[in-house]
Design a protein that fits this description.
The chain is of the alpha/beta class. It has 3 domains: 169 residues, Peroxisomal Thiolase, Chain A, domain 1; 126 residues, Thiolase/Chalcone synthase (Peroxisomal Thiolase, Chain A, domain 1); 25 residues, no CATH class. It has 12 helices and 13 strands. The strands form 4 sheets. A 5-stranded mixed beta sheet has the order 1-7-6-4-5, with helices on both faces. Strands 8-13-12-11 form a 4-stranded mixed beta sheet, with helices on both faces. A two-stranded antiparallel ribbon has the order 2-3. The longest helix has 28 residues. The radius of gyration is 24 Å and the shape is globular. The protein starts with a helix and ends with a strand. Bound molecules: oxa(dethia)-CoA.
Length: 382
């Protein structure tokens, strides 16, 4: 009996081994089924009409056109209409352009990814609002909260879904209405002169040509300094920003998500330790760009256009210098719009495309760094 059992288990293990060998041989020759590539089939953007120059801001706080231009490169930015425009409505305007350029319609979209740090509501996210307003089918909607790198993260998620064949038409949106939450007093001038409102969108579809489309995406995070570029309230954290922690009896609950003291302390305003963020950004931007190039056997010389997140013109110029890229290979529009966070990469890509700087066959590199910290890149053969 024991002998018969061991003969049986031996023959089973031989069969399994043979199966594994055959399987390995097959996998070397056969491409995994349903592995497609994705491409940006259409890109669009929308910026609000209201232009605020640096001199306009100096009416509200102690700042100057000279300081802002010298430290950031920004000349003006757009602020959304207070009542008529929201993060979602701007995203919709950008999406309409992207859909039209992709030659498709809202009804063809089978997945929505919406990146923003300034959602219309704390919850639900903007994705479902866009789905409702654009009268789309009952498709999935995912909101991404990765701040300045939100759009590149969103692109990466969309790319994976197209690759596996799960979806065919994905709408990726990055939109921000910073102006609603910023403080225009001198105490917040290092933050409020930088940010602007706007939206960008892309439609992702399967690439038809071999070697075309998104070649790879690279995502990173390091939460060690999460609080140095953040909006701490409203939030469900441990309230370390409150000087006097009110004693709560066991008869009381809640009340610390948002209250009068939080409002008056300024802890509900966006906070940034600018120099610390700057130091990290100038390391991580080139790192993640080089990572994308190396993964595809390219060098910086092969880049046709680098579209960096528009954080600060000085950061972009530093990266350009380090990679030894000529002026016409780095696209910047921070001068006109400031930092529009999740919208900045798609707005810049859309403007570059409109200007004829993104052509079929071009090697395009997108890169972003921001709050979290999170940083990311995408290398695209257009
Ligand atoms: O997109 C997400 C990632 N974000 C970034 O990558 C931003 C990275 N950081 C930066 O871009 C820069 O740090 C800032 C533009 C935010 C600030 O520039 P900075 O050269 O690093 O200035 P600072 O914060 O070191 O401040 C220098 C001085 C201070 O005055 P004192 O203490 O030297 O007297 C500030 O109070 O400049 C003052 N300052 C201003 N003055 C006029 C700060 N903001 C302003 C302002 N106008 N708006």
């Amino acid at each position: 009996m024991t002998q018969r059992k061991s003969v049986y288990s031996l023959s089973v293990s031989v069969v399994i081994r043979q199966f594994k060998i055959v399987n390995l041989r097959l996998s070397l020759f056969i491409k995994p089924p349903n592995m497609y590539s994705s491409k940006i089939a259409g890109i669009g953007h929308y910026v609000p009409k209201n232009v605020y120059t640096n001199n306009d801001l100096s009416r509200f706080m102690e700042t100057s056109d000279e300081w802002i231009q010298e430290r950031t490169g920004i000349q003006e930015r757009r602020f959304a209409d207070r009542y008529e425009e929201t993060t979602t409505t701007m995203g919709i305007e950008a999406a309409k352009v992207a859909l039209q350029r992709a030659g498709t319609t809202a009804q063809d979209i089978d997945f929505i990814i919406f990146a923003t740090l300034s959602p219309d509501y704390y919850f639900p996210g903007c994705g479902v609002l866009l789905q409702r307003e654009m009268k789309m089918k009952e498709v999935g909607a995912l909101d991404i909260r990765n701040q300045c790198s939100g759009f590149v993260y969103a692109l990466s998620v969309a790319d994976q879904f197209i690759k596996t064949g799960m979806y065919k038409n994905i709408l990726v949106v990055g939109s921000e209405k910073h102006s609603f939450a910023m403080d225009f007093e001198t105490r917040s001038r290092n933050v409020s002169v930088i940010f602007g409102d706007g939206a960008g969108a892309a439609v992702l579809q399967r690439a038809e040509k071999e070697g075309q489309g998104i070649l790879s995406t690279h995502l990173h995070s390091d939460g060690a300094d999460a609080e140095i570029l953040a909006m701490h309230y409203p939030g469900a954290h441990a309230n370390k920003w409150l000087k006097d922690k009110p004693a709560f009896s066991d008869q009381e609950l809640g009340g610390l998500f948002f209250n009068k003291e939080i409002l008056e302390s300024g802890a509900a305003l966006p906070y940034m330790d600018g120099p610390a963020v700057f130091k990290k950004a100038v390391v991580k931007f080139p790192e993640v760009i080089k990572e994308a190039l190396a993964a595809n056997n390219y060098t910086a010389k092969d880049i046709d256009l680098l579209v960096p997140h528009q954080a600060n013109l000085r950061i972009s110029q530093y990266v350009q210098q380090l990679l030894e890229l000529p002026d016409d290979k780095v696209f910047n529009n921070i001068q006109k719009y400031g930092n529009t966070t999740a919208a900045s990469v798609p707005i810049a890509l859309s403007e570059a495309w409109e200007a004829g700087k993104v052509k079929e066959g071009d090697l395009i590199c997108l890169a972003a760094f921001g709050s979290g910290f999170t940083w990311a890149s995408a290398l695209i053969k257009w």
